Amino acid sequence: MAPKGFGLIKSRSSINLQFFMKIMVLIVCALGFEVFTKGIFLSPRNITLLLRQTAINGVLATGMVFVIVSGNIDLSIGSGVALSGATLAILETWHRWSTTQAVIVVICIGLLMGVFNGFWTVRGVPSFVATLGSMLILRGLALIFTKGISIAPLNVSTKMIGQGFIGKTASMIIFIAIYVIYLAFWIYRKRMARGNEKLETKKKPLIQLALFTLLILVMIYVVYGYKGIPIPVLLMIALMLVMWFVARYTAFGRYIYAVGGNMQASRYSGINVQAVTFFVFLIMGGLTSVGGILLSARLDGAMPVMGYFMELDAIAAAFIGGCSMSGGVGSIWGALFGALFMATLDNGMSLMNISSFVQYVVKGIIIILAVFSDVSTKSRA
Amino acid sequence: MRGIKKNFPGVVALKNVDFDLVRGEIHAIIGENGAGKSTLMKILCGVYPYGTYEGEILLKDDLKKFQSPRDAKESGISIVFQEIVVVPDLTVGENIYLGDMPKTRLGLLNWGALHSESTRFLEKLGLDIDSHAIIKTLTVGEQQLVQVAKAISDEPSILILDEPTSSLTDTETDTLFSLIRVFCRAGGTCIYISHKIEEVELISDRITVLRDGEKIGTQNTSAISRSDIIRMIVGREIKEMYPKVSCELGEVIFEVKNLSQRKKEDLQDKKRLSNISLTLQRGEILGISGLLGSGRTELCMGLFGILPDVSSGEFYINGSRTFIGSPKEAIQQGIVLLTENRREYGLIHTMSTLHNISLSSLHRYRRYSILNHESEKAGGFRMVDRLKIKVPSLDTVVENLSGGNQQKVLLARWILTEPKIFILDEPTKGIDVGSKVGIFHIINDLVAAGAGIILVSSELPELLGMCDRILVMREGEIRGEFARPEFSQEHIMHMAMGQ
Asked: How would CATH label the architecture of B2-234?
């Protein structure tokens, strides 16, 4: 029995290795683009824009991680983004609502979309089908409400949500604050581990700390070199922190993983499977409306056709980040990586003037390869 | 088959078993669960390929080295498993000729020939089943018969039937028997695996008894009495296997009155519960015995709030009436169920050992709804120590543990919720002997700490060894009760089989 177990520890670290490999691939891609674009790609300005490009998909992918981990899928979020954005524009441009009012209403609509999807899924309609239906319904509603036309412009303060920056000084303070919190947490963890060494897995906390320090330094360089942190990026990071916290430090988060891992066993363990599934879709709906607000704010208006394929981007990001189709496996930071990776490809290939036709092909191949590498290393382990 | 030996990690499943078949005979293999019947058959029909076992298979003096079930099939060995594996949406005829459909000259399906041939074939076997009927509209028993017919249609020289009657009614069983006789009169040989002694006596020419992976003996059916067979099946004397520690029985902590399920009118389902009443005292181990399909598992589900179609039933915990509508409610009231099927209803394979252990007790490690990982881990350590779970780390994914340790992880999950009533459905199924004894020690500790345990098992010696009282179930009802001084293997077995 013992040797079997030791093999397992190895396979666990091989998951970390997998993640490390992925980051290496991302860095190689970035360096490649840097060379091909003659130094434009890694400029603070471009990285800032790239991050801003990541933000919307990042927010959606975060919710999608919960959905996929719980063993479901949500195909409706592209349409949901369109409906949210359209509602925002209608309220502000046609009805002259204030930004706060409009945003609150749009988020409520998002939650309602989640309620709708959750309602049917809990009643046994496969989420693939339920959300396929709501994908059409929400798109239709967006077209009906906007009468099929573009609506612009939005309130100036709304526009700021999508296009604004937090000033350089404020950005620096935020990063330093994040770093201090991380450091405190790191020291705390290390101390706890010392008192509890029996059966403890050997992690490599020093390497973790070093990598995080490096990341913060790079971010400070980027932020200082351009205009500061884009507001959508700040929002994305904040939402991800919240979602990560939910996943790691609440019973609900744990239950999501349990339900996705084995639904029947979860039920037999006393988990209210239906409630868990329902709340996962509720959260997804809320995040979808946030995505819609960010998108229309960035475009300073809304079109009923916006948000096409966004669900697929979010799903792809989640899978590239290591989610398992069969549920029970996945992480928020993986999804951030996935979203970053996709934005890197988009941004880099656009800078190289590669036609968008070719970009589709390349992205498709990359998605398959990314998941294939996951699957093949897992089956070997 | 000569000198067959098969080892699984940690267990010897078969020890030097010799087994021979005479052309045209019906040869029964009987023995308890885990006696090695299925393992032996899986070797014979190529599920365990040549090289994974010791010994040799000779077919008409030819050494056979089957690599796959397909090889075995080509040599004329067909097996029908206990579970029904037919395609439910196709017709009877299509199922029988699946994989070998008659074609027209153009290579298209010849529907006419398909159904006329299968109709003729069914008639020849004496089955009154329409070739055009969709499988899923048939009763479970008829489906099983079609499955046997399908196996015979491959014209095997050796037909293996593994517990074929577990889902058959009495008339269907008769039909099956005549079908087997037709097959053997035409020169086929049949291996018939069963728990049910009276059936075996009826149908077989010779009987081989297996116990704990060893062959106890082969006898002509006509030359052996029923009580001899029972003695051969159960007669083991490993007393230390069951480290029973009797402890003082306390007050009644759990009582069930008249638990019943609605009967479906068109189906006579023997497993449906009717009028189940039982009591459980503090410190008591109450055994539930019964054959496969006697309603044991349904009873467990009923006590845990997950049984469908419950029509009546009252639960009392510590004398006060209570309702159990879901596992969640059951757990909150101190009732837990260790399910028979670990893989499907127990483990979360994607999660670590720790997360599996703490899954049902997260509320204990929570303040302001934030989980405290440190105290969760401490709880996990305590369980690993207490139950002696062999695991390299709490982070080890539970999938990679051995069966016995997985079972202990699930026990740990329940013990952590501090329940008063444990329902253990086949807690030692599929785990090695060492872990079994370990689990019995844990059970002793639990009753010593004042819990009550309902132990459901198909292994009679296990119940006899561990229980204070045994209830015998058959066809969804409790048919008898034995207190420890009255324990007798033969009596219980007779009652379980309905004599």
From this structure: 3-Layer(aba) Sandwich (3.40)
| Alpha-carbon gap: A105 to the closest alpha carbon of chain B (Å) | 28
Task: Return the closest-CA partner of residue A58 out of A233, A297, A320.
Answer: A233
Taking only the tens place, the pLDDT of each residue in B372-389 is 888 899 999 999 999 888
pLDDT in tens, A176-200: 999 999 899 888 877 776 655 544 4
Contact A270 B327 (CB under 8 A): yes
Residue type, B189: T
Q: Which residues of B touch A198 (CB under 8 A)?
A: 381
Which amino acid would we find at residue B453?
A: I
**Cα–Cα distance, A37 to A349 (Å, whole number):** 9
Quick: pLDDT tens for B354-376.
999 999 999 889 888 889 888 89
pLDDT, tens digit, 9 for 90 and up, residues B375-430: 899 999 999 999 888 888 888 888 877 777 888 999 999 999 999 999 999 888 76
Judging contacts by C-beta atoms under 8 Å, the chain A residues touching residue B400 are 4-5, 7-8
Tokens, residue A362 = 């390349």
pLDDT digits (tens, 9 = 90+) for B143-174: 888 888 888 887 888 888 887 876 677 778 88
**Measured between alpha carbons, how far is B154 from B347 in angstroms, rounded to an integer?**
39
Using CB atoms, pick whichever of B339, B355, B401 lies closest to residue A268: B339
Radius of gyration for the alpha carbons in chain B, expressed in angstroms and rounded? 25
Looking at domain A14-30+40-167+227-380, its CATH architecture is Orthogonal Bundle (1.10)
Scanning every residue of chain B, which has its alpha carbon at the shortest distance from the alpha carbon of A262?
B348
CB contact (8 A) between residue B396 and residue A5:
yes
| Nearest-CA distance B208 → chain A (Å) | 34
- Residue from A254, A269, A329 whose CB has the most chain B CBs within 10 Å, to mutate: A269
Instruction: For domain B239-334+419-497, give the CATH superfamily.
Output: P-loop containing nucleotide triphosphate hydrolases (3.40.50.300)
CB contacts, 8 Å: A328 with chain B: 348-351
Task: Say if residues B169 and B7 touch (Cβ distance below 8 Å).
Answer: no
**Every domain of chain A and the residues it spans:** 14-30+40-167+227-380
**A-chain residues near B401 (CB < 8 A):** 1, 5
Per domain, the residue ranges of chain B are 2-234, 239-334+419-497, 352-413
- For residue A259, give the chain B residue with the closest CA: B348
* Bond from prior residue into A153 cis (ω within 30 degrees of 0): yes
